[in-house]
Write a structure and sequence with these properties.
elongated, about 775 residues, alpha+beta, seven-stranded mixed β-sheet
C-alpha cells in the first residue's frame, strides 16, 4: 500500500506539473524563510544563557525618582557589591563591573587597542568565562593583576602559553601582571571584552566611586539557590538610602540573562526591549509559512474534481475515510519534507548574506536539537497544509462521485476565498509596515539634531596629545581643510557613558524633587565646533577670563527647573556654586527613541578625552590625510584611528535598519508566494470555465469582458483583504512608532498606496491567465461538444 501511495503521488505530480511546481516553490520558500528566522530567534533567545549559574545570576538595577517620572538605570554605587555580600546572607558572590572601554595596551614597542573593564575578584565565580590559564579564585585578587583573552594574547605575544607573570602596560601609564588567560568571549555574550582589571585598582585611581551618592557601575550577584527574588528585592529596596545615598533611589535585582531581551523600562516598569523584534519576526515567519500552506490547500481543493473519481473507486473497493485521510496527509507530509530539503539548501546558500544583514554568525550545525526543530517545522507545515484537503477529499460518498453528481459546495468556495483574503491581508500589512519603517528611518537620518554631525571626525586623546591637548588643537586648526577643532569629555553618539548628576540645587527648588541632568565637560570652542546654537547668553570664551565657575544649560534643563531669566543666576553643582552664562538650544545627544533630557556644559579642558574636528565639505580626504600625517609626527607610536560622527549616529538605529531590510525581503517573499497561489487558482479557474468562455465569445462577448469576468472575483477578494488589513496595519505601525519620542505622522497615502500596490500586483498576476483565456479560439474550446 505504501508503494502504491508513493506511485500515486509521483503520477499526480507528473499529471499536474504546474500545481506541483507552484506548491514546491511556495512551500520551499516559506520554509526557508521560517528556518532563517528560527535560527535568528534561537540565537537571540540564547544570548547570555550559557552561564552555568544562569538561574542564580542577577544584576542590581536602580530606580531613581526624578521630577515627574522614574528613571531605571544599570548604574549603581561602586561600594554596593561588597556591601551586599557582607550584609545579605542570600548573596553567594558579588562583583562590581565598570563599563567596557577601549584602552591602549602595550608591550615593548607594540601598541594595540583593546576593550577592557574593571571587575571584582569573584567575577569568574559569577560568569562562566572559561580560563585556560590561572585560578578563577585568585586571578583578580591582586590590584595589579590583568586577565587577558586568548585573542589578545595572540595579538601581543603570538602565543597563549607561558604568559603568567608577564607584564602589560595600559595607556602607557601603569604596568599590570598577567595572572590568567581566558577563552574568547562567546558570540552569545551581550558583553564583549579583551581583558579584565581589578576593581580595587579602579577605587584607588577614581575615589569618587566610594561615595554612595554617586552612581558608578554595574553590580552582579549570585544568589543562593532557593532565594525568593521578590523577598530579596524587598530587603534591598532602600539599601542605598540606608547607606547615606540618594533619598529617591530604590534597588531591585533582575535576572542578568533577561537584560538583553527585556532592557527597556518606562517610568520604572519593564516595557519590552529586543523581545519585541523577536516576537515580530516569529509572527512574520508563522504568517509566511501559513501563506505557503494556504497555496497548497487552495490548489489541492481546487483540483479536487480531477481526483474525485480516484476517491470514489477506492471507497467502492473498501477504503474507509481514515485510510484516505492518511493517504492525502501522507502526500502532504512528503511534499513538506521534499520542500524542507530544498529549503535547507536555500538556507545554506543565503545564510552568509542573512548574517551580513543581521550582524550575526549563524550556522547550521545539524546538532540534535536543530535537526529536531527543523523536522518539527516540516511536520507542522505538512499537517497544516494537508489537513483541509485530506478532510475535504475524503468526505464524498462513492455513489455521488461515480454518478457524476459532484459539485463544489458553497462552503468550499467560501473557505478558499477566505484563505486568499487572509494571504493578501497579511501581505498588505507587511507592505504598510515596510513603508512606515522606511519612512521612520529616513526621518531619523534626516532629522536636524540641533547640532551639525556632518563632516565631523573624532578620536581619543593618547600619548603626547593627552598630555598637552592645547598645543595639539592649535596645530590641528591650522591644517588646510580643518574648519574648527576642540575636545570633549566623551562622544555624544556612540553609546558612550553619560555622566549623570542628580545633586543640583537652585533657588526655589522643592527639596523633595530630584533633577537628573547629563554633565558634559568641554574645552573652549567645542560648542561652536558642534554647531550648537546658544538661545540666551553666550558660550565659553577665553576673552572673559576664568570660566571655571560658569555653567551652560540646555532648554530642557531650564524648563525642568522652572527658571525664568536664568542668565546670571547661581546653581550649586556637587557642592560648588556656578553662574549660568548661557542657555543652549535643545539638541539630541541620545537617540530619537528618547526625549531630550536636561543637560549642562562645564568648561574643564583637563577632563576632556575626545578630539573633535570639523572638516570643510568636499575636502574630507585631503584634510584627513594631512591630519593623519601631522598626528604621526606629533604623536609617534600611536596609530591614527578616527570615526565619523554621522556614521556613529546612524549606528544607534542599527536594529531598526535591520528590521527595515529584513521586512522588505520577507514582505516581498510573502507577496511572491501569495501571487504564486493566485496564479495557480487563476489558471485553474480559466481551465474550468473554458467552455463557458467559448460560448460567451460565440454570443459576442469581447476580450475585455472576458478578462473582466475572470479578474472580477479575484479583485473582490483583494478588496476585502484591503478593507481588513488597513485598520490592522494602522494599529500595528502606530504601536511600533510609539517606541520613538520623535516620529513621523502616519499619512493616509501610506495605506491607500499600499492597497493600490497590492491590487495592482494581484491583477497583474491574474491578467496573464485572463488574457490567455480571452484570446482563446472558441472553436477549440467547443469542438468536443
Amino acid at each position: 500500500m505504501l508503494r502504491h501511495n508513493f506511485l500515486l503521488f509521483y503520477r499526480n505530480c507528473k499529471r499536474f506539473k504546474s500545481t506541483f511546481i507552484i506548491n514546491l516553490i511556495g512551500l520551499s520558500s516559506g520554509l526557508a524563510c521560517s528556518l532563517l528566522i528560527f535560527l535568528w530567534v534561537n540565537d537571540e533567545l540564547s544570548v547570555d544563557k550559557f552561564h552555568e549559574k544562569d538561574s542564580q545570576l542577577y544584576q542590581v538595577m536602580e530606580n531613581l525618582k526624578v521630577v515627574g517620572e522614574i528613571h531605571t538605570t544599570e548604574s549603581t554605587p561602586g561600594l554596593l557589591a561588597e556591601s551586599l555580600l557582607e550584609e545579605m546572607p542570600e548573596v553567594e558572590f558579588a562583583s562590581p563591573a565598570s563599563w567596557v572601554s577601549e584602552y591602549r595596551v602595550s608591550i615593548d614597542d607594540k601598541n594595540i587597542k583593546a576593550k577592557g573593564q574593571y571587575v571584582g575578584k569573584d567575577f569568574f565565580n559569577i560568569f562562566s568565562y572559561d580560563l585556560i590559564a590561572g585560578n578563577k579564585d585568585q586571578v583578580l585578587a591582586d590590584k595589579n593583576a590583568i586577565v587577558i583573552s586568548e585573542s589578545l594574547a595572540t595579538r601581543l605575544f603570538n602565543t597563549t602559553e607561558d604568559l603568567i607573570g608577564k607584564v602589560i602596560e595600559i595607556e602607557k601609564e601603569k604596568q599590570f601582571l598577567i595572572t590568567g588567560v581566558f577563552k574568547d568571549v562567546p558570540n552569545h555574550s551581550s558583553t564583549k571584552f579583551d581583558f579584565l582589571l581589578s576593581y580595587e585598582e579602579y577605587k584607588d585611581t577614581s575615589p569618587w566611586v566610594l561615595d554612595w551618592k554617586n552612581n558608578a557601575h554595574a553590580t552582579y550577584l549570585i544568589l543562593n539557590e532557593g532565594t525568593d527574588i521578590n523577598e530579596f528585592n524587598h530587603k534591598i529596596a532602600d539599601f542605598v538610602v540606608r547607606k547615606g545615598g540618594e533619598k529617591h533611589v530604590t534597588l531591585f535585582a533582575k535576572s542578568y540573562s533577561d537584560n538583553y531581551l527585556y532592557g527597556k523600562y518606562d517610568n520604572g516598569i519593564q516595557a519590552g526591549g529586543r523581545i519585541e523584534y523577536v516576537k515580530i519576526f516569529s509572527i512574520i515567519a508563522l504568517f509566511i509559512l501559513l501563506i505557503a500552506c494556504i497555496n497548497f490547500m487552495n490548489l489541492s481543493t481546487a483540483k479536487a474534481s480531477q481526483r474525485i473519481r480516484e476517491v470514489g473507486i477506492k471507497k467502492v473497493v473498501g477504503a474507509d475515510r481514515r485510510m484516505l485521510i492518511l493517504q492525502y496527509m501522507g502526500e502532504s507530509m512528503l511534499m513538506s519534507f521534499l520542500s524542507l530539503f530544498i529549503a535547507v539548501l536555500l538556507v545554506q546558500l543565503f545564510l552568509s548574506e542573512f548574517n551580513g544583514i543581521t550582524g550575526k554568525q549563524l550556522t547550521i550545525g545539524f546538532d540534535r536539537n536543530l535537526v529536531l526543530s527543523f523536522l518539527g517545522i516540516a511536520l507542522f507545515t505538512g499537517f497544516i497544509a494537508g489537513s483541509y484537503p485530506a478532510l475535504y477529499l475524503s468526505r464524498f460518498g462513492p455513489a455521488t462521485i461515480l454518478k457524476g453528481n459532484f459539485i463544489s459546495s458553497g462552503s468550499e468556495l467560501w473557505v478558499r476565498k477566505g484563505l486568499v483574503i487572509f494571504q493578501f491581508a497579511v501581505s498588505l500589512i507587511l507592505i504598510v509596515s515596510i513603508l512606515v519603517i522606511y519612512r521612520q528611518i529616513e526621518f531619523v537620518q534626516t532629522q536636524h539634531l540641533g547640532y551639525d554631525k556632518d563632516n565631523i571626525i573624532y578620536f581619543d586623546m593618547e600619548g603626547k596629545v593627552e598630555s598637552n591637548p592645547g598645543a595639539f588643537l592649535a596645530e590641528v586648526k591650522n591644517i588646510p581643510g580643518i574648519v574648527n577643532a576642540s575636545s570633549i569629555g566623551h562622544s555624544l553618539v556612540d553609546g558612550g557613558y553619560m555622566n549623570s548628576v542628580s545633586t543640583l540645587q537652585w533657588e526655589g527648588k522643592n527639596p523633595e524633587d530630584i533633577l537628573e541632568t547629563e554633565n558634559v565637560w568641554v574645552n573652549y570652542g567645542m560648542i561652536e565646533t558642534l554647531g550648537i546654537q546658544i538661545k540666551e547668553g553666550r558660550s565659553y570664551s577665553p576673552d572673559f577670563g576664568s570660566e571655571d565657575n560658569k555653567i551652560i544649560f540646555n532648554e530642557a534643563a531650564i524648563e525642568a527647573m522652572g527658571m525664568k531669566d536664568p542668565i546670571g543666576k547661581v546653581i550649586n553643582v556637587r557642592g560648588s556654586d556656578r553662574q549660568i552664562i548661557g542657555v543652549a538650544k535643545d539638541f539630541h545627544f541620545q537617540s530619537l527613541h528618547k526625549k531630550v533630557k536636561p543637560l549642562f556644559f562645564i568648561l574643564r579642558p583637563e577632563e576632556t578625552y575626545v578630539v573633535m574636528a570639523k572638516i570643510a565639505a568636499g575636502r574630507e580626504r585631503e584634510a584627513i590625510e594631512k591630519l593623519e600625517e601631522f598626528y604621526h609626527t606629533y604623536n609617534p607610536g600611536y596609530p591614527f584611528e578616527y570615526k565619523f560622527m554621522d556614521e556613529a549616529y546612524q549606528a544607534q538605529y542599527v536594529a531598526e535598519q535591520r528590521v527595515s531590510v529584513l521586512s522588505s525581503y520577507f514582505g516581498g517573499l510573502a507577496i511572491l508566494i501569495s501571487c504564486l497561489g493566485l496564479f495557480g487558482l487563476a489558471a485553474f479557474t480559466a481551465e474550468r470555465r473554458t467552455k463557458e468562455i467559448g460560448i460567451r465569445k460565440v454570443l459576442g462577448a469581447s476580450e475585455w469582458k472576458i478578462m473582466g469576468l475572470l479578474s472580477g472575483d479575484f479583485a473582490k477578494m483583494v478588496l476585502v483583504a484591503i478593507a481588513i488589513a488597513l485598520p490592522l496595519s494602522y494599529y500595528l505601525t502606530s504601536n511600533w512608532l510609539d517606541g520613538f519620542a520623535y516620529k513621523i505622522d502616519l499619512r493616509w497615502w501610506y495605506f491607500v498606496g499600499a492597497g493600490a500596490l497590492t491590487m495592482l500586483i494581484a491583477l497583474l498576476t491574474v491578467s496573464f491567465q485572463s488574457v490567455k483565456a480571452a484570446l482563446m479560439n472558441p472553436v477549440k474550446s467547443l469542438k468536443s461538444e
